[in-house]
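Title: Comparing notes on inverse folding

I've been comparing how different people in this forum approach sequence design from structure. To keep things fair, I'm posting one structure and asking everyone to reply with a full sequence. Here's the target:
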């Protein structure tokens, strides 16, 4: 947020590879890809060139009345990358807006089939009970920011698919954070459905963002399976529309196209899987820390759960803001991580997220683990009650 008063946050001025520099000259190892968006690293001349070349051709096309060559080409390319059954794409300026658009589409879909979905009960029980007669289920494939990256157990995605099918409901996969190679596949559900128990389970709608633009342009979007697109097209008013002033912006779509091309040409998904073991092993060393309950994740997305008592899983009181303080201590040591809470009960339960750029080298991983361990130690020293006085 820009204000007229001095900010307590560093001002970043430059980035190269997996590092960024602030205005004071301090260098940081970015272990969270900006905000899980800078998949391909900083300072890429090819992505900057894709942006400037697109801007020189066409700055803007009104999305409610026109397509641009870049948006049409990007739609074709991302649908090809996603594979069947996805046949329709719309573009937004962020992942949050993509989720909004997905929900916006789910409602008329239900109405066109003769239903009207009731509100969802906030008290979640078993999957079937929680869904009730709802028209759609929206879920992060791997819940990251709020839950610390628990990987769904084998068979869970198949259960979602069965529960939605039993109610003629839609499965909306929130792949905003987990998409574009983050876990070694274009979308996280693709990798998870390689497991036999989940094979064949596909969402009806996919919302994406963050890594789609590689951090170089703001873009998100929604992919629709053919069965959803065909129903929406049958509406009396015509095809479903979600127009935004900057949605499907030609420049952003050009960058999105180049991100997809780089992912193919540099075998990003395979490289993430090859390096996953090294990242897992480096972070797993934190499991020996007396305040680390668990280290979990997949690909280049990992959560470190921090607890007051690792034996019982007792969380720290929220007012201590342990995760935020550890994040700050990491930053003081030149390491950028993400802090969150809720991995215990939705509110309590501090955790850190690690998600380095997908072009990171394995020698960066021990640096990440060491920085987190030292920061945990520093925060715990400040948190521990003083010992008995002497004298």
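Reply #1:
Here's my take.
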């Amino acid at each position: 947020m820009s204000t007229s008063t001095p900010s307590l946050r560093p001002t970043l001025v430059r980035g190269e590879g997996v590092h960024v520099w602030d205005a004071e000259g301090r260098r940081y190892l970015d272990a969270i890809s900006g905000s899980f968006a800078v998949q391909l690293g900083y300072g890429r001349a090819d992505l900057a060139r894709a942006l400037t070349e697109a801007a020189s051709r066409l700055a803007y096309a009104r999305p409610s009345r026109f397509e641009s060559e870049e948006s049409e080409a990007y739609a074709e390319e991302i649908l090809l990358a996603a594979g069947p059954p996805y046949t329709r794409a719309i573009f937004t300026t962020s992942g949050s807006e993509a989720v909004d658009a997905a929900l916006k589409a789910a409602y008329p879909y239900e109405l066109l089939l003769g239903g009207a979905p009731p509100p969802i009960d906030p008290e979640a029980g078993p999957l079937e009970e929680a869904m009730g007669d709802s028209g759609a289920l929206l879920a992060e494939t791997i819940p990251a920011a709020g839950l610390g990256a628990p990987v769904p157990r084998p068979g869970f995605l198949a259960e979602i698919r069965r529960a939605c099918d039993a109610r003629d409901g839609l499965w909306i996969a929130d792949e905003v954070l987990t998409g574009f190679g983050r876990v070694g596949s274009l979308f996280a559900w693709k990798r998870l459905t390689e497991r036999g128990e989940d094979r064949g389970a596909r969402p009806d709608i996919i919302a994406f963002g963050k890594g789609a633009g590689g951090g170089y342009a703001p873009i998100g979007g929604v992919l629709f399976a053919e069965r959803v697109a065909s129903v929406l097209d049958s509406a009396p008013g015509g095809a479903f529309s979600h127009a935004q002033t900057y949605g499907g912006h030609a420049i952003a779509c050009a960058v999105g196209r180049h991100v997809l091309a780089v992912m193919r040409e540099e075998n990003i998904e395979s490289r993430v899987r090859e390096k996953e073991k090294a990242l897992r092993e480096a972070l797993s060393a934190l499991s020996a820390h007396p305040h680390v309950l668990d280290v979990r994740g997949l690909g280049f997305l990992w959560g470190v759960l921090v607890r007051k008592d690792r034996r019982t899983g007792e969380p720290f009181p929220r007012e201590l803001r342990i995760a935020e303080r550890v994040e700050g201590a990491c930053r003081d040591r030149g390491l950028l991580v993400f802090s969150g809470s809720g991995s215990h009960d939705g509110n309590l339960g501090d955790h850190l997220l690690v998600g380095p750029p997908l072009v990171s080298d394995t020698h960066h991983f021990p640096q990440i683990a060491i920085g987190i361990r030292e920061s945990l130690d520093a925060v715990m020293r400040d948190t521990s009650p003083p010992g008995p006085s002497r004298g």
